[in-house]
Design brief:
binds guanine, six-stranded parallel beta sheet, Rossmann fold, about 290 residues
Length: about 290
């Protein structure tokens, strides 16, 4: 069994990005600029956004954090999005989710100029991704593809089971694993209504678990020699931790790991790659790689 080290891989990629930014700046180019909008004081969102700002520093990017109280109206937030759309210095930006209930997330996502949508959530990017056109690919699936590639894990023609059908992970992951230019695999998506979910998993060469249920994937569901990617990050109370919680994956790691060829830990697997891929998308935005 080999552990897939997302933390080390992410650090290496960030160093590669920093080197490229250094070259760009030395050649008289502009430092990529990422802006982030954070609404309210959700603990998880605060941490994610802080880590995104730190990652920008590590990559040599300029970053701008715009904070608003959760009393901001939808119209006011849409006006802020529009300002960033028109700000020529900002190459890409994100609006951290979730948003307060009185604001439509979909409306906000669709208000973002798709050419600056480094999260890859805008329907134009989702659609372009689905038909294999150049676009921003959302960070978590992109990070998983990068881990599979860097660890030389064969996906072409392999059977891949994806657990979960969310817009952020399950759906784009299935699209990408299916496409010839990315996974080139035979893909099955399982969810809460699937019959024979266990049997589907048992036949899988690669399992990507993104359902948000701690310890859902057990040893009896995993074929000997399979690769298991754990996207779960459920916060569970833990008095031994300074934060008062720890992150729990969707996979029962201790019993599943011995059966695997490769497995990602939680934390330290997919998580660190996600922010790193946002940085990759921001670099692409700075270079106007996909759109003018
Ligand atoms: N909330 C949880 N994950 C994400 C993400 O990747 N992007 C944004 N904008 N919000 C999130």
């Amino acid at each position: 069994m080999q552990l897939i080290d997302g933390k080390a891989t992410a650090a290496q990629i960030k160093a590669e990005i920093a080197e490229e930014v250094k070259q760009i700046v030395e050649n008289g180019g502009k430092r990529p600029h990422l802006a982030a909008i954070l609404v309210g004081h959700d603990g998880g969102s605060e941490t994610y956004v802080r880590n995104k700002v730190l990652a920008c520093e590590a990559c040599g990017f300029k970053s701008t954090l715009l904070r608003f109280e959760d009393t901001i109206s939808e119209a006011e937030l849409l006006a802020e999005v529009d300002k960033l759309n028109r700000d020529e210095d900002v190459d890409g930006f994100i609006v951290q989710l979730p948003l307060p209930k009185h604001i439509s997330e979909q409306k906000v996502i669709e208000a973002i100029d798709y050419r600056k949508d480094v999260d890859g959530f805008h329907p134009i990017n989702v659609g372009r991704m689905a038909i294999g056109l150049p676009c921003y690919i959302s960070a978590t699936p992109k990070g998983i593809l990068e881990l599979l590639r860097r660890y030389h894990i064969e996906t072409s023609g392999r059977k891949c089971v994806i657990l979960g059908r969310s817009n952020i992970v399950g759906k784009p992951m299935a699209q990408l694993m299916m496409q010839k230019q990315y996974g080139d695999a035979t893909v099955t998506v399982c969810h809460s209504r699937s019959r024979d979910l266990k049997k589907e998993c048992q036949e899988a060469d690669i399992i990507i678990a993104a359902i948000g249920q701690p310890n859902f994937v057990t040893a009896d569901m995993v074929k000997e020699g399979a690769t298991v990617i754990d996207v779960g990050t459920t916060r569970v109370p833990d008095a031994t931790k300074k934060s008062g919680f720890r992150l729990n994956g969707d996979v029962k790691f201790d019993e599943v790991a011995p059966r695997c060829a490769y497995i990602t830990p939680v934390p330290g697997g997919v998580g660190p790659m996600t922010i790193c891929m946002l940085m990759k998308n921001t670099l692409s935005a700075g270079k106007k790689e996909f759109y003018q």
